[in-house]
Amino acid sequence: MPRPGEADLPFLWPRAYTKGLYYQAFGGRRRCLSKSVAPLLAHGYRRFLPTKDHVFILDYSGTLFFLKNALVSSTLGQIQWKRACRYVVLCRGAKDFASDPRCDTVYRKYLYVLATREQPGMVGATGPRACDCVEVYLQSSGQRVFKMTFHHSMSFKQIVLVGQETQRALLLLTEEGKIYSLVVNETQLDQPRSYTVQLALRKVSRCLPHLRVTCMASNQSSTLYITDQGGVYFEVHTPGVYRDLFGTLQAFDPLDQQMPLALSLPAKILFCALGYNHLGLVDEFGRIFMQGNNRYGQLGTGDKMDRGEPTQVQYLQRPIALWCGLNHSLVLSQDSDSNKELLGCGCGAGGRLPGWPKGSASFVKLQVKVPLCACALCSSRECLYMLSSHDIEQHLAYRDLPAGRTAGTPELGPAAGAPQDPGGAARALEEYLNQVHSCPTLQARVAKMREIVGWLPLPSAQRDFFWGALDMLQRAAAGGSPGSPAPES
């Protein structure tokens, strides 16, 4: 006789047995992937968020877990990392959660949780009603310090934050695709007082009522909306970020910062990543488009020229996840051998691009061992995190690019399927050869070849072979023995 819940086992076991949170610290001597404790009762991992001291994980049943002691401070005031060894349940019935949107986790003092709670019935009502609410917790202790409850007729599915602490705007996405917002003063949340906050329809839903937003992304000074039709709309609240993203201040209105700006894109956008002054978009064909500041090469276009409109990153397709961090970008991808790998570009300072301390203006393979079922990632100032959880109900289904639209977008190697534009591929390889020829020294040519091998969609075994051979050549050119370590490139 089957046990209770056994009929649902095919849907639950992939989540249960593949869940894991992995992290690699950037500082210190030990630079390898570690795994935190996995709550036994968690029904897979849906999303996670590192804060100043701990990590929070939401599972598929709406339970929010509080992983404690992810890092501690030493007596010398330096950060020391250790494995998260214990956990507690912060709350149940959670739908989503958010904290300060800046990449530096030191600012994440509070955790905002969107949840559903049973409220006592009103006069004349037959019983309690389920109402959505936002609960605010101290990330350091897990203590709830604030709660706001909404009318039972309003149902939300996502929450993001934007703005500074004294003017923290909470954006709430309804099931119908409308955006509501309210403002709180975060510096007063820990004071024992009550006050009323006003919920208002955001301008993107008020002025464009026909739009149905499906997801949001935010940082401290801008917000990005993706609609059910794959359109992208932007709010930018500061002139500096506006100039970085669009290259001009011509259309910026400081008196109307909520005016949504439509991005011109060739296809339906599936998901996005938003950094402080650059962003990444992935369309239905698996193409990656980057836009914004490129001072450190964080757009991965092979140069350091800013882009005021979405620009496709060639030879990088069908990502699993995308992350725009502090002057760098990361892509989680899968090669033709079904092995997952992590690619990165931009500033490599502080170890944020493992294996490439000097950074790279193009996406290169990082020296990180990626878990088999990795599905999400994020990077803070101190650490790289990867979430592992396989869900058979959620799978990115990219479409094949129509043959008539492949001109100018060559696809090389088995990672992208059969070459659909051999002429474009040949021109790209010829351009790579010209770049190698233009390097003044042998060391510079070997370094350029290492970059180019990282750009090409080769199987991981072939890429590692070419990199190993180039390391041998580089050591020989430097006069070192075959077993000596290669200089940094």
Automatic annotation (TrEMBL):
<protein>
    <submittedName>
        <fullName>F-box only protein 24 isoform X3</fullName>
    </submittedName>
</protein>
<feature type="repeat" description="RCC1">
    <location>
        <begin position="286"/>
        <end position="335"/>
    </location>
</feature>
<dbReference type="Pfam" id="PF00415">
    <property type="entry name" value="RCC1"/>
</dbReference>
<dbReference type="InterPro" id="IPR052866">
    <property type="entry name" value="F-box_protein_24"/>
</dbReference>
<dbReference type="InterPro" id="IPR009091">
    <property type="entry name" value="RCC1/BLIP-II"/>
</dbReference>
<dbReference type="InterPro" id="IPR000408">
    <property type="entry name" value="Reg_chr_condens"/>
</dbReference>
